[in-house]
Specification:
By secondary structure, the chain is mainly beta. The protein has no helices and eleven strands. Helices cover about 0% and strands about 50% of the residues. The chain is globular, with a radius of gyration of 13 Å.
């Protein structure tokens, strides 16, 4: 059974940092692309960052220079280091996996999802 489990969300003041983790289990994810999406109340789920199976890294313009995505050597976990957080970063953050190994910016292309973790940034 495939599982993606996020952790690390919480409440932080503007300018602060959080590190999200996503642990993958149930199959070998080394050839998968792994990404992070977020969804704020009343808004569409949007792309945040992703890493392809070959290690290519992609960011949404809104987080470039502030967020860093990484993956462990075993490729069983993916992380999102979030610095200089802003109130507009407040959302539920979801981990996602795509078995093609290619990074897509559209959430519908991803095959597996975690349950989400809440990130709240206060002003």
């Amino acid at each position: 059974q495939v599982q993606l489990v996020e952790s690390g969300g919480g409440l932080v003041q503007a300018g602060g940092s959080l590190r999200l983790s996503c642990a993958a289990s149930g199959r070998t994810f080394s050839n998968y692309a792994m990404g992070w999406f977020r969804q704020a109340p009343g808004k569409e789920r949007e792309f945040v960052a992703a890493i392809s199976k070959s290690g290519g890294i992609y960011y949404a313009d809104s987080v470039k220079g502030r967020f860093t995505i990484s993956r462990d050597r075993a490729k069983t976990s993916v992380f999102l280091q979030m610095n200089s957080l802003k109130p507009e970063d407040t959302a539920v953050y979801y981990c996602a996996a795509d078995r093609s190994g290619t990074v897509y910016y559209t959430h519908s292309r991803y095959d597996y999802w975690g349950q989400g973790t809440q990130v709240t940034v206060s002003s």
